[in-house]
Design a protein that fits this description.
9 helices, binds S-adenosylmethionine, seven-stranded mixed beta sheet, single chain, 248 residues, Rossmann fold, alpha/beta
Length: 248
């Protein structure tokens, strides 16, 4: 199921180490829990990955499950949340309508061209009063105000991001999900370095901004490679979590 730029079957082996580990996962889980209404009894963590965030979504009375499309990620998650993770495509959850109190999706919607289908499916499985909590505008949070950003910003097309707020909010509204105030969390260890940004650029990570034009890739790579301190991470990003409540 390789429908994302990254192959998560291969990423699993080094995912936790390269995505901010426990500090990032703890910050994400704490932020998600701030938005889960008191009294909620069930939470499905969509795209649970290795379960690093999922296992931190703990609160008395809240039963937490995880779902992910990648076998290798789920194998790690199964050790962290035994018996509570399943392999599933977030567009087709093996759950009845109106069966959950909360659905979270941390770092999922920016990855896929079908984010709106995932929002629709979350709306289906939420009971009235249940909430969808999801990261939005993920890539736009990176390198803000840094020298890397100064090079990339003219090419960043927020209009193309599959997790852009207007798209997700519009789709949510169309499926009976009303906006609630969201929150933010710090992406510990996620500040980019020039060298790593060049690697991502060449791997096609930002290809949608300029249709993968190889001339643009080379221009940007040369500009990034000329920056000072190529291995010094720039400031950690602050990621945005949007929240929507299912109308009755
Ligand atoms: C960046 S990771 C995020 C993992 C976790 N939420 C975290 O914050 O550490 C993205 C995850 O989305 C999963 N994924 C991608 N497309 C999916 C889909 N259609 N349905 C379910 N999971 C999907 C990948 O397998 C991967 O584990």
């Amino acid at each position: 199921m390789a429908e994302t730029v990254l192959d998560y079957e291969a990423e699993a082996a080094h995912y936790d180490r390269t995505r901010g580990g426990v500090p990032r996962a703890g910050a994400a889980a704490e932020a998600v829990l701030r938005l889960v209404p008191p009294g909620s009894r069930t939470l499905l963590d969509l795209a649970c990955g290795t379960g690093l965030v999922t296992e931190r979504l703990t609160r008395p009375g809240l039963r937490v499950y995880g779902a992910d499309a990648a076998h290798a990620m789920l194998r790690v998650a199964a050790d962290r949340a035994p018996g509570r993770v399943v392999r599933a495509d977030a567009r087709r959850l093996p759950l009845p309508d109106a069966s959950l109190d909360a659905v979270s999706a941390v770092w999922l919607l920016h990855l896929v061209p079908f984010a709106t289908e995932i929002v629709a499916e979350a709306a289906r499985v939420l009971r009235p009063g249940g909430v969808l909590i999801a990261t939005v505008d993920k890539d736009a949070a990176h390198d803000v105000g840094s020298d890397i950003d100064a090079i990339l910003r003219p090419y960043r097309s927020a209009g193309a991001a599959s997790d852009r707020t207007e798209l997700i909010a519009g789709c949510a509204a169309a499926h009976g999900l009303a906006p609630r105030p969201g929150t933010r969390f710090t992406g510990h260890g996620q500040g980019g370095t020039p060298r790593d940004t060049v690697r991502k650029l060449r791997a096609g990570y930002f290809a949608s901004w300029f249709s993968g034009d190889p001339a643009v890739v080379e221009t940007l790579a040369a500009a990034l490679a000329a920056l000072p301190d190529p291995d010094r991470p720039r400031a950690d990003p602050r990621y945005r979590l949007a929240c929507f409540v299912r109308q009755g």
